[in-house]
Specification:
Blueprint (H helix, E strand, L loop, with lengths): L3 H30 L3 H27 L19 H28 L3 H31 L3 H12 L15
Helix pairs in contact: 1-2, 1-3, 2-5, 3-4
The protein binds magnesium ion.
Magnesium ion binds next to helix 1 and helix 2.
Length: 174
């Protein structure tokens, strides 16, 4: 059985993952409106990934016989000055999420809840990837600057991103 402390922390993380999804959906809609369809596509897929992260926690709480509590999702920004600014916000946000996952891991460990701790190891690795992806795109946008051909080619690269479930853990359990 999940302790109330761990269950509350897991539910807070569901809200944080859904907020992340909402943030990336807002970024996607902003760049869609700006005619940057490749950037919009990249963030649209990021939105789906965040939903999958939330679903991993949802499935896990259900599997442990706990209770999922869905709190309101706070408002997100609506505009960004450039794709570079959006990816800088993405990196800063993912660094915060990494800190939240680490904190959750510490809560599970202090509670001797090793099952929860084990489930969190997937997220520990996932956060390394999330931060790395954002960092690499920041580097690329800085490298191309205002070069039209570079912007066009990078947009094509981002347009090619497709969604795949980040983990089988995100699919509906049982
Ligand atoms: Mg996430």
């Amino acid at each position: 059985m999940l302790s109330n402390k761990v269950q509350d922390a897991l539910n807070a993380q569901i809200n944080a993952e859904l907020w992340s999804g909402y943030l990336y959906l807002a970024m996607s809609m902003h760049f869609e409106a700006e005619g940057r369809s490749g950037v919009a596509n990249w963030f649209r897929i990021q939105f789906k990934e965040e939903q999958a992260h939330a679903e991993i926690f949802i499935n896990y709480i259900n599997q442990r016989g706990g209770r999922v509590v869905l709190e309101p999702i706070a408002a997100v920004p609506q505009t960004w000055d450039s794709p570079l600014a959006a990816f800088e916000d993405t990196l800063a946000h993912e660094q915060k999420v990494t800190a939240m996952i680490n904190n959750l891991y510490a809560i599970a460990e202090a509670d001797h809840d090793y099952a929860t701790r084990d489930r969190l190891t997937w997220f520990v690795s996932e956060q390394v990837e999330e931060e790395d992806n954002a960092r690499q795109l920041i580097d690329k946008f800085k490298l191309i600057g205002n070069d039209g051909m570079g912007i066009y080619m990078l947009d094509q690269e981002l347009a090619a991103r497709t969604y795949t479930t980040p983990s089988p853990l995100a699919t509906t359990a049982e």
